[in-house]
Amino acid sequence: MSDTAKEVEDMKEFMTVLMDVKVSLAEQNGKLDSLLDMKDKINETYDIAKEADSRSESNEKDIEHLQSKVSSKASKEDVEKIIKQRENTFKNLPAWIALAISMSGFILTYLAN
């Protein structure tokens, strides 16, 4: 009978170890599922990063192209030319306003008759 009791005790121990293994496998399976779920997010993040990198390279090329087109300093003659154009605009503005008023007066007198 002691042999049977020892076998029962060994069987209980074996079942306990087996249950611990089963619980550990279930936990590992859950962790694996979690990692597999993250795999899609990681792939999506990788694609976004790759696209952003290619876009930044494209932007760098565009910036270099634009910088080669535009000179970094405006010449003194260009600045003087722009200033003269603005001065002429402000000098001629009252004349254009007077012309518009006289034309509207002429048109109104013509329409009134």
Protein traits:
2 helices, mainly alpha, rod-shaped, 113 residues, single chain
Assembly form of the protein: single chain
- How many β-strand stretches? 0
Biggest β-sheet, characterized?
Answer: none
Order of helices and strands: HH
Give the helix level as a range of percent.
over 70%
What general outline do the C-alpha atoms trace? rod-shaped
Q: Could you tell me the strand content as a percent range? A: under 5%
Determine Rg (CA atoms, Å): 43 Å
Compute the average pLDDT.
Answer: 86
Termini gap: 136 Å
Number of helices: 2
Helix-and-strand structural type:
mainly alpha
The low-confidence parts are none
Question: Explain this structure to me?
Answer:
- It is built from 2 helices and no strands.
- It is rod-shaped.
Blueprint (SSEs and pairs):
Elements lengths: L1 H68 L6 H37 L1
Summarize the structure.
This protein is an all-alpha fold. It is built from 2 helices and no strands. The termini are far apart.
